[in-house]
Amino acid sequence: xxxxxxxxxxxxxxxxxxxxxxxxxxxxxxxxxxxxxxxxxxxxxxxxxxxxxxxxxxxxxxxxxxxxxxxxxxxxxxxxxxxxxxxxxxxxxxxxxxxxxxxxxxxxxxxxxxxxxxxxxxxxxxxxxxxxxxxxxxxxxxxxxxxxxxxxxxxxxxxxxxxxxxxxxxxxxxxxxxxxxxxxxxxxxxxxxxxxxxxxxxxxxxxxxxxxxxxxxxxxxxxxxxxxxxxxxxxxxxxxxxxxxxxxxxxxxxxxxxxxxxxxxxxxxxxxxxxxxxxxxxxxxxxxxxxxxxxxxxxxxxxxxxxxxxxxxxxxxxxxxxxxxxxxxxxxxxxxxxxxxxxxxxxxxxxxxxxxxxxxxxxxxxxxxxxxxxxxxxxxxxxxxxxxxxxxxxxxxxxxxxxxxxxxxxxxxxxxxxxxxxxxxxxxxxxxxxxxxxxxxxxxxxxxxxxxxxx
Amino acid sequence: xxxxxxxxxxxxxxxxxxxxxxxxxxxxxxxxxxxxxxxxxxxxxxxxxxxxxxxxxxxxxxxxxxxxxxxxxxxxxxxxxxxxxxxxxxxxxxxxxxxxxxxxxxxxxxxxxxxxxxxxxxxxxxxxxxxxxxxxxxxxxxxxxxxxxxxxxxxxxxxxxxxxxxxxxxxxxxxxxxxxxxxxxxxxxxxxxxxxxxxxxxxxxxxxxxxxxxxxxxxxxxxxxxxxxxxxxxxxxxxxxxxxxxxxxxxxxxxxxxxxxxxxxxxxxxxxxxxxxxxxxxxxxxxxxxxxxxxxxxxxxxxxxxxxxxxxxxxxxxxxxxxxxxxxxxxxxxxxxxxxxxxxxxxxxxxxxxxxxxxxxxxxxxxxxxxxxxxxxxxxxxxxxxxxxxxxxxxxxxxxxxxxxxxxxxxxxxxxxxxxxxxxxxxxxxxxxxxxxxxxxxxxxxxxxxxxxxx
Lengths: 455, 455
Prior knowledge:
Chain A is α/β, with parallel strands linked by helices. Chain A has a domain at 3-264: Acetylglutamate kinase-like (Carbamate kinase). Chain A has 15 helices and 20 strands. In chain A, the strands form 4 sheets. In chain A, strands 3-6-2-1-9-11-12-10 form an 8-stranded mixed β-sheet, with helices on both faces. In chain A, strands 5-4-7-8 form a 4-stranded mixed β-sheet. In chain A, strands 13-18-20-19 form a 4-stranded antiparallel β-sheet, with helices on both faces. Chain A is globular. Chains A, B: Substrate binds at residues 47, 74.
């Protein structure tokens, strides 16, 4: 008996068969007594097909019209899903972003949710019906214009609705089992993370982990919505993202928490060695490291031979900011060989490199630098874990692991719970594997316990 | 300088190329100084594809969800059309039925428009922009639910908007040149009708002419909206549907009326023989007959051997009406051979024949008839013309033409401006040709004048 918001992505509703499969899962959750709100994305490749249609018309479609076009995708998936659920004997109604009360600002293509007024969703739940809501879309308050939320939009719709409705949990269904300690395609021994804090998940997402959108996690943290990332193709537990990785949340029945897992294995009363200790000294349960994220989508720009006088760095980043580019890491090296000159490097999304370099070229005379170097062959590795702030020597261990693997570090940046390094792009996979091993994140069969529960 | 509502059907916007072509036409009309509102249907086969998707999910989709699903089609076409127009340097914005203020009742799948509140369309026109409106859809007043208008929905949206905005003309663009004196596939000599009254057009539409939906013509007549049916593939005049077939309406420049046509042919000042006479005696200009419509979609039910006592016919049609079936023509014959008994025949849509015969079978004991005959091999021919009410001998001429062509008449019904006869279905084409010839409707090259203007 809980209020559950479930979100299904495009790959979970790619065709009539998968829509029926998802409908069955939703109907089961409703029949188990839960109040169920479902947020759904457009079917499979629909969005890409619509973008392609627009490209056939014009290379520069007005963003307002793009939003109207793209929202047709969710309209199709949400009504089909409502039909499929109704066909199973469970009443369901679909709602557009506007009908669901998802109010946004007027920035077409990447609108931000400013309010959620889900009157109609509440009414629908009170009648015992399932409410299906179009993800990725909203409506402007004053002009009643259709907007889309941009990347990660449907995840954000789901968390925002969960917050607005005071839901017990927001389940994000995807095509992987949850959040992993590293990308399993690179590190086959990567383990699914059972629980992770918002802060760690934010660092993971910001560092390139694609399973949850950054803004969705931010929204969840701000409103304290537990987010459960799990597979729509299996019934086992995924990863629970909450404020505290070791507190047992009272969430709905389908959501058993790790501590309770042992109770569910028939014929065993074995309690893990550290169980008692964990109860007394909860910090011990905190994993020091959550995982290793990586990102190949950035480029590095180096401004070579800048006069080493006050205000130059400020001016450089002012110019870059004015061109609408967000930068990530910054490193400044004093060049010993050329007195009075320095090199400033920074990383930024690859797609923004051209805009940033044009902006800097335009002020070359003013800044009096020697040259610009653009390097799009870099990779970034990030080690994330709330535990690292109280454990010294983490960075030494990280750098040691990379040295042992013969991998050169080009840039370093750190936060309270993250260390990121930039390497050559072709060394990135080796780097991820080396670090994953060094911090003993490699799987030890624990995942089998989950698979073995058969849920 | 006029306010023009243009409606483009699915075949006119079937792909990116045709959307660009239509956009060009709209941009030209705007550049000529007109205020332009465009109503658009879904692209080509989109609606059928969406229906097919729903059928893959469930054989009986809830109608509310079907409406949400189907309205995705217009969302796609309207946004693409707005993009295409904008790409030509003319500002355009698209609006859903809800945004355009098309308010309907709550009968999903065949909603009726109850109000049009086009504030946003007016604002858009005042800014000099083209407003694109999704056809076929509206929104319920209180619950804000999406509805569709059913068959002929986009035509009706266009005429309703034209009425709500006080437009000078509503142009219905289609894949034929206008309304013809008969179906050109049956009568190759059929001529395009230049002007026709609402009443005649209503009779034509009700008698099987498919070019304009009945409800759209009804709406046009009620609010006095001139409807111009024309081809989206050519620029020549189509058919103008108005209150009076010989009054010159002050419509926009693109809409020259027949009287003015002669002025436009360079090098000729020839005035047709009856021009002067027509000015003094306008009734002379009224064509006696507008055209010949036909319909193969009906069936005939005969209730054989009904006791010829008062109240029996009333009871029969009461029973049929209760089964939700609309009947068309009724004939009662007194059977001389069997005193006290009579046969009652009526026509109805073929698809309703089963429901009506079941309803009648259920009361066989009460009505004491001998048997039911169902005949779906009938055809209906209708001769329509406002002139016929003042011209005696029209029906005699019609029956004579059919007799000369050796075609048997099974049923007859008449209105002030229409005579309909039922024949064998396989004799229908011959019947249409014979009547078309007898009333001298066959083309005499007049259509060439229009083609020759090259507009």
